[in-house]
Amino acid sequence: MNSIQKKILVLVLTVLFIMAAIWISLTHYNQKMQNQYNEILERYLIMNEVTSDSQQIVTTLNNYLIEPTEANLKALHLGEIKIQRTTDEVSKFRNVDNDYALTNYENLIDSLLETMNQSVLARTEQQTEDYLSAFSEASRISKYISEMTLTLIDTEIKTYERFYRSIIERSEKLRILGFWLLLLITLLLLLLAHWFSKRITRPVIKLTEAAQELSMGRFDLKIEVDSDDEISFLAKMFDKMRININNYLSEIKQKAQLEHELQQSKLLLQESQLHSLQSQINPHFLYNTLDILSKKAYLEGSEETSDLLVSVAGLLRYNLNKLENSAALFEEVQVLKQYIDIQYARFTDRLHFHMEIDESCLGVKIPRLTLQPIIENAVIHAIEPNEDGGIISFCVKDGIDHVRIEMEDNGPGMTEEKIKQILQVNNNKGEGHFTGIGINNVVKRLNLFYNRNDVFDMESSPGKGTKVILKIPKTRRVDGNEATPHRG
């Protein structure tokens, strides 16, 4: 199957190759002409520099003759070195046409330097007439050098006149060639773009028409696209989807009928469950009975038994409230204390419970039955199986934007896999003995209540106990009313 990507890649590579070849050719040709231009220009500049150097050295010689100081003599030597270096550069441009003129040119420069040295020597020996005569000769030679420079430049211009004409002709031809190449590439690209767009848009149009038919509910028309790329595969998958949708519609109709029958069965089941619940013992009657028993035990002098019955009754009364209702953290802590009192009566010295509470944090709102199921889970797994008992710590701290509640035990701990199993959405294991509410239920209610998923966290590892951390946002507070503990 030829993919669309492959077609686009071939098209792009073809265009890039043509453009790159043209660009490389033009660049090479332009660079070649530029190098030739630079070479000619360098010839003219060096020759002109010889004239300038000869005039400068005559001026420096005149300064020395007037004032024969060490500085002027040094400047004269530097000028001599410079003109010799420039003369060496001129010698590199020797060819058949300028060989004779260039030889005379070099001789003139040598004569200038020789005359200059004679003038310096005569000035040193205080031979005034001789050094003035030598200086005049040097000035005359400098003028000859200037005239010879013009002659050489004129010779160079005549030599390269044909070269200039050829460059102009080639530039004109190159301009015409570039124009036709640009026109040819443009036409080629237009043809390729037209062919390529037709290859893609034709099957796409067919798919669009088929989609319109499907949008009108006609799922019985077969979708056919003549192509050998991804669009053909897309059309086949689209047709398969049409068949599946048609089958799904039939299944939905059947399921709708089954769901209607199932709903009728659920209504009957709920009605039977309602009758079953109505036949159970009224929990309020049980609470009132426990209240009477606690008072009777208190009157008989059994204060410990009375307190235990009060804790059981308070816990039962708190559980009678709907889970949908929220409570202040203060209420949850009071219920937790009642639950711990019951467990103290059960485990005696085996249970060690440490509590550390920041009283300023007890006003935040929290779902009912949040703390007690978590502590109950710690009792079940950390205290019950251990003959020596265990330690449970409960701590409430004030954070920046939340209240931090930590519940930790020194039980056997668990693995990361076990933690994931406990927190699974459909996991109903690990329910408490007293409330029948598991950790998973607490987590789901916390997430729903605060509309966020970072409220509950659990840390544990085998042999190192388990730690549950609640980060309760400070968004709901009790409006100035502090809840009070209830005693039967």
TrEMBL record:
Compartment list: Cell membrane
Gene3D superfamilies hit by this protein: 6.10.340.10, Histidine kinase-like ATPase, C-terminal domain
Classification via PROSITE patterns: HAMP (PS50885), HIS_KIN (PS50109)
Entry's Gene Ontology molecular function annotations: ATP binding; phosphorelay sensor kinase activity
One cellular-component annotation, GO: plasma membrane
Enzyme Commission number(s) from the entry: 2.7.13.3
Broad class of where this protein is predominantly found: membrane
Residue stretches spanning the membrane: 6-26, 174-196
Reaction equations catalysed: ATP + protein L-histidine = ADP + protein N-phospho-L-histidine
The keyword Repeat is annotated on this UniProt entry: no
Superkingdom of origin: Bacteria
HAMP domain span: 198-250
Boundaries of every Histidine kinase domain copy: 257-476
Topology in the lipid bilayer: Multi-pass membrane protein
Keyword field: ATP-binding, Cell membrane, Kinase, Membrane, Nucleotide-binding, Phosphoprotein, Transferase, Transmembrane, Transmembrane helix, Two-component regulatory system
Protein name: histidine kinase
Species of the source: Lederbergia lenta (Bacillus lentus)
UniProt lineage: Bacteria, Bacillati, Bacillota, Bacilli, Bacillales
